[in-house]
Amino acid sequence: MRALDRKVLRDVARWRGQMAAIALILACGIAAFATMVSLYESLDASLASYYRAYHFADVFGEAKRAPESVAVRIAALPGVHTVVTRLVYDVTLDLPGRTDPVSGRLVSLPEGRQPALNALYVRSGRLPEAGKRGEAVVSEAFAKANRLRVGDRIGAAINGRWERVRIVGIGLSPEFIYEIRGVGDIFPDDRRFGVLWMGRRELASAFDMTGAFDSLALSLAPGAREADVIAGVDRILAPYGGIGAYGRDEQISDRFLSNELEELRTSAVLTPVIFLAVAAFLLHVLMLRLVQTQRAQIAVLKAFGYSNAAIGWHYLKFAGLCVAAGSVVGIAAAYWFGFQLAAYYTVFFHFPVLRYVMSPRVLAGSAAVGAVAAAAGALLAVSRAVSLPPAEAMRPAAPPQFRPTVLERLGFQRLFSPGARMIVRNLERKPAQAILSCLGIALAFAMLVTGRYAGDAVRDLIDLQFHTVDRSDATVVFRQPLPLGARFDLMHLPGVLREEPFRAVPVRLSAGHRSRRVALQGIPLDGTLRRLVGRDGRLARIPAGGLLLTERLAHILEVVPGGAVRVDFQEGHRRVRTVRVAAVVDEAIGLNAYMGLSELNRLAADGQTFSGAYLDVDPLAAARLDARLKTTPAIAGVSFRAAAMANVERTLAQTLRVTTITFVVFACIIAFGVVYNAGRIALSERSGELSVLRIIGFTRAQVATVLLGEEAILTLLAMPIGAALGYGLAAVVSLGHETDLFRLPLTVSPETYAFAVLVVAAAAVASASIVRAHLDHLDLIGVLKTGE
Fold this sequence. Notes:
With 788 residues, the chain is α+β, with helices and mostly antiparallel strands. Among the domains are: 89-199, no CATH class; 430-469 and 642-788, no CATH class; 496-617, no CATH class. The protein is 52% helix and 20% strand. The chain has 22 helices and 22 strands. A hairpin with a 5-residue loop joins strand 15 and strand 16 (539-540). Helix 2 (16-53) runs antiparallel to helix 10 (360-387) and helix 19 (641-695) packs parallel to helix 21 (750-776).
């Protein structure tokens, strides 16, 4: 073993505590990077494999009632490869032991076989047999949530008549990987909504659709232009009540998956950067102080003929050992966290198989990312080491100039004990060192705030959505728009105290070459049960004329208030209008467009109708209302606010449990590592003067007060700085997770700040006890042996 290699090992042994702390912080960054990237790759590969194996469609279309002969014309369009027609209906289900309404989506299957597109993966049981009535395959998530098994029977209100349906299979479809009812929902509710696949002939007979279809899916030939095919499908389906074809990117399940993958990709960059930046900063401070304490050793090495390159490589080896240890721990942790997160994803995204794999490329990339962070932190210190001339390095560093501090010049020295004056003097004479230590602790504090930010934001989002925005008790949606006069029938339902109608119309909004398919919602101008509130809590009013868009949608369309958008109605008379954008609102959920209900009906030109209503309900009559709504044929779906809120809270609790705990654990490691490093490095630098204090009569407690008091002051100063930095990082995280589905409000609770204070204080106390133990065992004679 060469001399410099032995010196590396001795330095490691001496600085092992600080190295271990830095290695753990590097491990956190490497683990975050490897986990997020490998999870992204695993999800992306599983999704692509599932779509390919089960022939997920490229384009979808809907109509009121189109004859089967129309499918031949669509199949003849340039670029169309395969066309599958089907029947799709939302119905009310009756489950054993359940009194509340449960919604189901019936999707037809070819008699006794798989469809050519969107084929089923049958987890257990079989497909419905040709010619047999009342058989269905049920979606796996719905079956699990309601404890349904093959052979069970459930009720379904098929075209106004209750039918008994026997479950013959439990399956999955690439069309419903993320299984929600439709626009307006962002979280699945597997207890209250599920998908059932039944034979085409039975559904056609029940809904009088023999020889006709209301939904289609098609795949594209290689090289086909999706926009041209969609335009052709719309043209052909328009006479039959076409609602507008759309591509895979607007299919609701794939859209959620794409957003989730995009968030994972963002997290794979943002989160590790924060961890690794802190690790690089700490490594820089450690290496800088290591070089300062080894000035004489560097001079001797140069005097003996070691080159600058050899000395620089020696110190980089020291940093490399941190990287090696951090990489081993980080990659091992990434495997564990990756499997945990993959298991969590299977709760919400339903794949036949989700294989979590960490590729060699990710392993190599993770180690490389850690090495780059370490090199960034070490290079400045290494350059300082190799630039020291031997003669200068042989001389000890110039002693600091002691002068009265600002407080002493102001006459406050009488208020301080000798030990306190030492603390103040040391902080003032080494401002750069104090600032670096304070910044390190502030970063640890900021990481703790950032780690808990998502939980705060989600709780604020739930409170905003279910207490400020939606103040109704129940929302009902009809199978088809009804005349406005029917709203008074709602008042005769048990327990209904008040109702507010709304209408949702599928439209395509366009501004120049930019467009987006959304539901244009018409609500009363004076409505109070459904309000429009921004993330900042400000209430927005529906304009008397014109559109109100969410800020996200306005940004996508690149329009501002006063501008105009083209509105293509995709149902009814399919009118095309140009409408002024009157205002925008920064809503937290969805891409939404609003206008007054009367104005919407006037623009659509198909009568004064409404498609649903918000209800204020007497709690004492809620059970009777449940039973009544369950047997009302005109109602396609019912959502109760209390149940929806409980489902969202349960879903988000599962969603955030693993990620928040992981982030907070990592942040706690960083907090301890930063505070411990600051204390241990201060002890190494000041061991000489502290030993002198012991020799001249200071007690151990007094000497500890001089050292640890300085760290306590820096910790206290760092906390408000860390709070500001944490809020800034939370803002960065909020911007990085803005999607079409939801945007997190920028809110940090007092409890989060209190948690950060407690953790940093606990880390300070723990590190102080360790430093105190080292201080009590100082070798006074050995420390004072200096070469002057």
